[in-house]
Specification:
This protein is an all-alpha fold. It is 75% helix and 0% strand. Helix 10 packs parallel to helix 12. The longest helix is centred in the first third of the chain and has 14 residues. It is elongated and about 75 Å long. The termini are far apart.
């Protein structure tokens, strides 16, 4: 018979019920059934209350399920037993970020990122925390360092693009947004940064072209319609500009900027 990538009967029989249930939980997670996995892991934690790794795994799933209070309790228990556990610290930072406690999240995730400089999720969370705190220069510095690790990673390109755009570094934000769109052609945020970059460098025709692409995907987006109006006005196409502003106001009639 052809060999198969399964545990042999002997291997299965050597496992206790807890290990088999843990394997089942891992499979449930792989197929996206996190709620079912969490239910099983909660029961396992009751049966094996001293298993720290089990608590850590459950905490990870509770964070995914947005059960932040339950996750925090588990994380605190893990850190009490293993104060230097970096995985627990990372989950703690994720939980803090979900509560928008950005100062604490930044302090915690910085410890993890410094200890594990190639941990991309941790470094991305650090970028997010810096961005939320309005630390524009530090966000850019962190994003640039991160891009050196994996320059084709779309999440890294996105945070780098955001940092460049926040500082109005239009020429390089145009480059980064274009690179991201080469990977994800329908990324609306990248299209927005690209059009803003072209507008900021007085390339109004190019900005208008990007906005037309955006409006094909989201025809009634008031901000895009308004930006289109501004570009048309700069190109002295006044009647078309007025029409664009009218459409923007029709979709967002209480916006004073459009008026």
């Amino acid at each position: 018979a052809a060999p198969v990538d399964l545990l042999s009967l002997q291997q299965v029989e050597s496992l206790d019920d807890h290990k088999i249930e843990l394997m089942r939980c891992e499979l449930l997670c792989k197929v996206g059934r996190h709620s079912d996995a969490a239910k099983s892991l909660r029961q396992l934690c009751l049966e094996m209350p001293k298993d720290v790794d089990l608590k850590l795994k459950l905490a990870e799933i509770e964070v995914l399920l947005k059960n932040i209070n339950e996750a925090k309790k588990l994380i605190d228990q893990v850190i009490f037993d293993r104060p230097n556990d970096l995985q627990a610290k990372e989950l703690q930072a994720v939980a803090l970020a979900s509560e928008e406690k950005w100062d604490a999240a930044l302090a915690t995730i910085t410890l993890v990122a410094d200890a594990l400089p190639r941990n991309i999720p941790a470094r991305l969370l650090k970028c997010k925390a810096l961005q939320e705190k309005g630390e524009k220069e530090l966000h850019l510095e962190e994003a640039e360092n991160l891009a050196e690790i994996d320059p084709e990673n779309p999440e890294i390109l996105a945070t780098l693009m955001q940092a460049q755009s926040a500082l109005k570094l239009h020429p390089i934000s145009i480059y980064t947004a274009s690179k991201l769109l080469g990977i994800k052609p329908k990324n609306l945020e990248a299209l927005g940064v690209l059009s803003a970059g072209y507008f900021g460098t007085s390339q109004y025709e190019k900005a208008l072209g990007v906005l037309e692409k955006t409006l094909k995907m989201i025809p009634n987006d008031a901000n895009s319609l308004s930006s289109r109006g501004v570009c048309l006005e700069r190109l002295f196409r006044v009647e078309e500009a007025l029409s664009a502003f009218d459409k923007a106001m029709a979709n967002d009639p209480h916006n004073p900027v459009f008026r």
